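Hi R.,

As promised, here are both runs. First protein below:
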Amino acid sequence: MENNEYRGFRDLIVYQKSYKLAIEITDLTKTFPKEEKYVLVDQMRRASRSIPANIAEDWARRRYPKSFVSKLIDAHGEEMEMEVWLDMSLDFKYITKDTHNTFINVYLEISKMLQSMETNPSKFCY
């Protein structure tokens, strides 16, 4: 798809994947211990939701490539933060290794997509 074929941020696969993951993280963290509600659960929910939110906010900045890339970097930072929270969830035995791997693999896909957008903003900017 060329940049003029995108109707909006919802057309971006990276947005779709990150949005879906945010919903899945919310469901996953419902099984965490109550003492984690205001610590790990809160951090995971905020970071996972921040990725698609940053992508959506970034869409409005497309006419300014440097600003566009800056906001993508914010989304990428949240993605990397999610990897840490998933590692901790595994180490605390709140999730299984299979669950960890499943989520990490999708976050790594998102990371690659964000990296590609960061290095090739002209495909999206006008």
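And here is the second one, sequence first, then its structure tokens:
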Amino acid sequence: MTESADPRPWLLLLHQLPPQPAYFRVKIWRRLQGLGAVAVKNSVYALPARDESLEDFQWLAQEIVDGGGEATIVEARFVDGLSDAQVIGLFDAARSADWEQIATEARQIGEAWGGLSTDEARTRVERLAKRADKLAAIDFFGAAGRETAAGLIDGLRGRLDGDNDSEADMAASETSSAQWRERTWVTRRNVAVDRIASAWLIRRFIDRQARFKFVDGRGYKPEPGELRFDMVQAEFTHEGDRCTFETLMRRAALDDPAVAAIAEIVHDIDLKDDRYERAETAGVATLMGALSSGTLDDDTRLARGADILDSLYDAFSAAARKGKRK
């Protein structure tokens, strides 16, 4: 199930800066980065057409003019050349790099945990969380890596608070799984490995009648009967150092060695931390990367990804049965 995509409006800042002083040019560039704007052409920066974005561009345009430059703001739609998807890709590429940096720093804090005092750990975690909040404000389309970073920060906060999993939590998850059936499962457009694998897990083990819907990642409000996964404020997403597939597996209380093996592969591809280093990971990453980087629509990606995961599951199940017979 996909949504129709009409050309969307964008705000464009067309500007020209004086050659000197150099610091002014750097200052404006930094301001643009802080707003989350992306360059679609030399001296042309874009933001989604929103009231807040217009106000941000207006203040910046005035700053440029006051500094001896020229600035014009227009609202436009791309009808030739760049497509909306390509412009969104520019935003996602910029924010994905930012989220990866935050995730890396979160992992570094986790690795250094034993050598930190409680106050030091709390200061570093809260400082990183504030950076993540600022980044979330300019992550207009829910870039890849956001859930990973948020999950890692939540995991660090959980360690500060002594928040450990309990048997009661697991029992509650098992009881609630019946409420997850015959739902519409919502996730971000342009699905990649974690969302492809999560959709396979949902349909095969949790909700055989599941319907899938693909939306913009930011600001989506679920309708009745919908459950969100691997997106901001989703019911199922990254938790601590677990990817969404692992979250679903845990909350559905799936105790299946073949599913656990797939979870290890998905984890290493999605979180890029090489925790499990399974021999199959590189091959699966290549196949999933080919699905995600092509022009296939999301329904087709899920279908072809399911074929790959079905084959993996059958192979791991056969290996587990063989191991038990020895």
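A quick note on the second one: Strands lie at 10-16, 38-41, 44-48, 70-76, 184-188, 211-215, 226-228. Let me know what you think.

Best,
J.
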